[in-house]
């Protein structure tokens, strides 16, 4: 696998391929913003550094800086801050930059970046079902807009893309694991579904599909446990078809101080590392639900790209030193 086009991106950035990709990406971002504003959302500025960040990043490491004598984290996700912001406004979104120091083997997937951006949104008093509906209509709108406004660019890339049909198929985590088992793929129950297994499921489908209700041991302390199914969460992932893998991750949030502290301890997290967040929960916040959708992965899927690093002008890839 050659990374010369990344290391020497200044030599290739003017190629017709990239002109098409970034024109489509501009359309994607404009479409997302237009759709969310029509749904009553306002756009906020995302944090880049803070005392703590999302610990649930699937084997990646966090990056830290010295902030005037205090250890601050570079955001791996603004999820904790989204919960704060809905005290101000009930529907918010941000184009959020994230840093995750992925393991070297992540580069082999073609869908992992160290630096990436996602549309992060949160809705007060929302449920998973609200998020399914919102995400499906959002993706449908985006693809419809790209088909209308960037048909020439898609044709130049050789990408045949059809309008999405909603609603999407849903699997529970248990159903997805059983399906994989029937195909000879072993998944350690209670953990995230591995990248290669996600890819296999993705290749089985021609439309996006949901995986819901992960076990509590598989996800972070900020997801809400399902009262009707103890040990399982009110959460979800959306998968792209055609082998492109994970598109969206989200769910309902745990917002009660005592429950969050207990979950932190159960998962090995030190509550003292989350002082501001826990103080916020003590003060009280609304229940909410939300999700994040990676911009580069969405661009990769819509453009039909083999590698996600072709979906960003200045890519940072695990183990590759580039501008």
Topology:
Layout: H1 4-7, H2 9-12, H3 16-38, E1 42-43, E2 49-50, E3 64-67, E4 70-74, H4 79-85, E5 91-99, E6 115-124, H5 128-149, H6 151-157, E7 169-172, H7 173-182, H8 195-203, E8 209-212, E9 235-240, E10 245-252, H9 257-266, H10 275-283, E11 288-294, H11 295-303
Parallel strand pairs: 1-5, 7-8
Antiparallel strand pairs: 2-4, 3-4, 5-6, 6-11, 8-9, 9-10, 10-11
Helix pairs in contact: 3-5, 3-6, 3-11
SSE order: HHHEEEEHEEHHEHHEEEHHEH
Helix/strand-derived class? alpha+beta
Query: Termini separation (Å)?
Result: 19 Å
Order of neighbouring strands in the sheet with most strands: 1-5-6-11-10-9-8-7
In short:
The chain is built from eleven helices and eleven strands. It is an alpha+beta fold and 323 residues long.
Q: What can you tell me about this protein's structure?
A:
40% of the residues are buried. Helix content is 35%, strand content 19%. It has 323 residues and is of the alpha+beta class. Strand 9 and strand 10 form a beta hairpin. The two termini are 19 Å apart. The protein is globular and about 55 Å long. Helix 3 (16-38) crosses helix 11 (295-303). The chain contains eleven helices and eleven strands. An eight-stranded mixed beta sheet has the order 1-5-6-11-10-9-8-7, sandwiched between helices. The chain has a three-stranded antiparallel beta sheet with strand order 2-4-3, with no helix packed on it. The model has no long low-confidence stretch (mean pLDDT 97). The chain has helices spanning 4-7, 9-12, 16-38, 79-85, 128-149, 151-157, 173-182, 195-203, 257-266, 275-283, 295-303, and strands spanning 42-43, 49-50, 64-67, 70-74, 91-99, 115-124, 169-172, 209-212, 235-240, 245-252, 288-294.
């Amino acid at each position: 696998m050659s990374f010369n086009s990344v290391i020497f991106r200044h030599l290739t950035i003017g190629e017709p391929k990239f002109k098409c990709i970034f024109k489509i990406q501009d359309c994607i971002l404009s479409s997302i913003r237009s759709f969310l504003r029509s749904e009553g959302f306002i756009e906020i500025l995302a944090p880049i550094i803070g005392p703590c960040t999302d610990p649930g990043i699937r084997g990646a490491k966090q990056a830290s800086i010295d902030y005037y004598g205090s250890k601050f984290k570079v955001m791996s996700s603004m999820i904790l801050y989204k919960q704060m912001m809905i005290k101000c406004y009930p529907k918010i979104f941000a184009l959020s930059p994230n840093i995750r120091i992925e393991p070297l083997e992540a580069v082999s997937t073609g869908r992992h970046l160290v630096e990436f951006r996602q549309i992060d949104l949160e809705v007060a008093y929302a449920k998973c079902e609200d998020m399914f509906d919102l995400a499906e209509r959002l993706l449908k709108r985006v693809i419809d807009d790209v088909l209308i406004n960037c048909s020439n660019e898609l044709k130049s890339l050789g990408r045949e893309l059809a309008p999405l049909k909603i609603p999407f198929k849903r699997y529970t985590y248990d159903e997805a694991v059983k399906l994989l088992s029937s195909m000879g793929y072993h998944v350690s129950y209670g953990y995230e579904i591995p990248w290669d297994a996600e890819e296999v499921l993705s290749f089985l489908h021609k439309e996006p599909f949901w995986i819901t209700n992960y076990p509590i041991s598989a996800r972070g302390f900020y997801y809400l446990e399902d009262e009707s199914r103890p040990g399982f969460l009110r959460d979800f992932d959306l998968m792209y078809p055609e082998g492109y893998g994970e598109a969206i991750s989200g769910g309902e949030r745990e917002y009660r101080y005592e429950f969050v502290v207990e979950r932190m301890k159960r998962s090995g997290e030190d509550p003292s590392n989350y002082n501001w967040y826990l103080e916020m929960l003590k003060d009280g916040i609304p229940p909410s639900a939300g999700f994040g959708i990676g911009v580069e992965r969405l661009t990769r899927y819509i453009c039909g790209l083999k590698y996600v690093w072709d979906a960003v002008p200045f890519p940072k890839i695990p183990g590759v030193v580039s501008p």
